[in-house]
Description:
The structure holds two protein chains of two kinds.
Chain A: E1 22-28, H1 34-42, E2 46-50, E3 57-65, E4 68-74, H2 86-96, E5 107-113, H3 117-128, E6 134-139, H4 141-146, E7 149-151, H5 153-159, E8 165-167, H6 176-184, H7 199-211, H8 218-226, H9 231-239, H10 242-253, H11 258-277, E9 278-280, H12 287-295, H13 298-318, H14 321-342, H15 346-363, H16 366-381, H17 384-398, H18 406-411, H19 416-422, H20 429-438, H21 448-458, E10 463-464, E11 467-468, H22 469-494, E12 505-508, H23 516-550, H24 569-579, H25 582-594, H26 601-609, H27 616-626, H28 636-642, H29 654-666, H30 671-681, H31 685-711
Parallel strand pairs in A: 1-4, 1-5, 5-6, 6-8
Antiparallel strand pairs in A: 2-3, 3-4, 7-9, 10-11
Helix pairs in contact in A: 3-11, 7-8, 8-9, 13-16, 13-22, 14-15, 15-23, 15-27, 16-23, 19-30, 20-22, 21-22, 21-28, 21-29, 22-29, 23-27, 25-26, 26-27, 29-31, 30-31
Chain B: E1 11-17, H1 24-29, E2 37-43, E3 50-54, E4 57-61, H2 63-66, E5 69-73
Antiparallel strand pairs in B: 1-2, 1-5, 2-3, 3-4
Amino acid sequence: MNNPAPVSVPLEQVNIRRKPRARVAVIGVPNSGKSTLFNRLTGLRQTTGNFPGVTVERSLGVCQLEGTALELEDLPGIYCLSGHSTDERIAVDALLGRLPGEQRPDGLLVVIAATHLYQGLYLLEQLLELQTPTLVALTMTDAALAEGITIDTEALSERLGGVPVCSVATTLGQGVDALKAQLATLADLAPPELPASWPAFSRSAQEVADASDGQLARLDVIQGLLHPGDEEARRLASFADERDLEVRHRTLFGDQPPRAQEARERYTWSRETVQAVTERAPVVKRWGARLAAFINRPWPATALFFITLVLVFQAVFSWATPLMDAIDDATGALGAWTLAAVGDNAVGSFLADGVIAGVGSVIIFLPQILILFLFIIVLEDTGYLARAAFLMDRGMRKVGLSGLSVIPMLSSFACAVPSIMAARTIPDRKDRFATILASPFMTCSARLPVYALLIAAFVPASSVGWFNLQGLVLFGLYLLGILGGLMTALLIKKTALRGPKPLFSLALPEFRRPNLQTVLIKLWARVRVFLKRAGTIIFAVAVVVWALAYFPRMDVADFQPSTDSTLSEENQLAAAQLEQSYLGRAGKQIEPIFRPLGWDWKISSAVIAGFPAREVVVAIMGTLYAVGPEADEESLAGRLKAAAWPDGSPIFTLPMVLGLMVFYAWCLQCAATVAVIRRETNSWRWPVFAWTYMSVVAYLGALLVFQVGSRL
Amino acid sequence: MTLADLKPGIDAHITLVNSEAEGVLRLMVLGLVEGTPVRFRHAAIGGDPIEIEVMGASLSVRREQARQFTVEVDHE
């Protein structure tokens, strides 16, 4: 056809990206499938930023609907509107419109897991008091069905005074379209009826608000009644009649704490509602459910936990090798090609030795870091980390903490920065700070490059029983980190942060299959952070170190090659040049400080330069050993083995390497961690203390290992 | 009899909560109030904390707090 006729497309089939019309908060109890649903509704169009006034991360996303669009906000999970941890307070402040410069959301999407209807309804009843258009998404209906539970959504909606209830099987995507159709009209819905769970209270709050001549909103009255002694109660007392309030307190709460009475009233209603709308069919437990029940038992769960850890370390070494070799070959070839193309001058050396060798030596660890993050994200998503908190509560009590500290400390194996933020779920301030100080000791993924490099170079790949010796050494280094963290927690809880013994109560999620989309979104976010660091801070440090090692240039005419050296003339020249460079001169100045640890000036400079970001150390070793006398060796590991003192004895002896690894395990070489401790503790005192303390501990540890090791 | 004294697999329900004791309010907000059916699942290694099932959900509770909940075994 030469001349196609113009095609007309109905308007509703044109895919238009609309600007969001209203803001809807997505809220639910922890582990209700809230974030999975949020990801599904917003796709990959999400932005993360901070809540105004506080540096707590928030996730915003746009949900495109037929004819309209909504801005969705994923709030931290909460059980009630009176939480005490930082996370819970943020969610409550966002819901009540107490964040500076922000209004209350235009609508609420309340996510309730069909398997946890009892607790979901409690939160919902409190949210209905806000009198904001509300929609309920009933998630995990597939998981409930597997347990023989079906929920009559129409009957439930009726008991909620007409609040729409949409059932979705989030993992399968069933019901998402129906939910979207409801969402499109959410902002236009009338405010819901007052909750039926505690009518005397709802009525009383309204009466007080009405009597205050517009001075008090319903919400202010509710918060004031429920939280005696708080700011809200004082505000209430200043606008309402004292005698009237006293009578209301007595009739509503008796002699009980108001929130205890609220729990009694609303949970009694919730229990009756659950029983009325739920139908239970007897089910034969499937194989998967039996297995989940078995591994949830204390002994199998503990055993599985350690098996998983060992498996992770094995995987990090064996699975990643082919990819790492490929990256290594590629960067090597790229460096050689660059040097040949540009010529052996300042520019060529800058590109090949500075940029490619420096950044390449960090990028090579991407496969290992990917595997590590994948394991940790899957552990989080299956609900296994909460199980670990339950299993380890007793042990954590011995160091003055509770099981709640286990979750942030375990996720520190990936990166301490998000896990220090995750410590917000710990309500007690002292316990939270102790956890924050212990977390940087956990072996994060950025420590992996140096461990991997040193282990690959100096630990033989022989096997011990079923295990690979290299994997076992790595496991030992992880234990060393855990030991450092726990000892620190113990010390700090006995001294500066002495307090009452922490409480521990936690809802344990059932073991569930991880969601692929959630895992991939989280994994990609972590990989992006890693690549961004490689492209910015690591790149910058590598360039500066290269320049310091390259300049000033020596006059070649002054150079007298020694004839009795085994090294080629070219390499002798390179070594002499490096020693008289700015870096060489500075390195010699600081060498005496690290000499007791058995380090030469190259290692000492690399470690000093690694304080902004610890993975830089490998990059700098890559740069320093690429231009020195060891440059004849193919790989960095080979160059380290060849490095020698002037008398010819090797620098990298076993005690020195072990000491270096101990130093690296305990030192706080991460500007991002220092910054996040500053933010989370809101003072410079703690980050300065953490940095100084960890540096001293690391130095003494390395000193001890080297000095004792060398004398054996 | 309190929540801390239950044996595995026995159904019971809460009859009285000492809401003034430390850490109890937090558990009430998670759904442990008078009338709630409970079932002991298992204890962590060393016997503490314990895991209990409440209306299909699992809660981890330390024995110290569990003793503040009086329970009555259901006879059927």
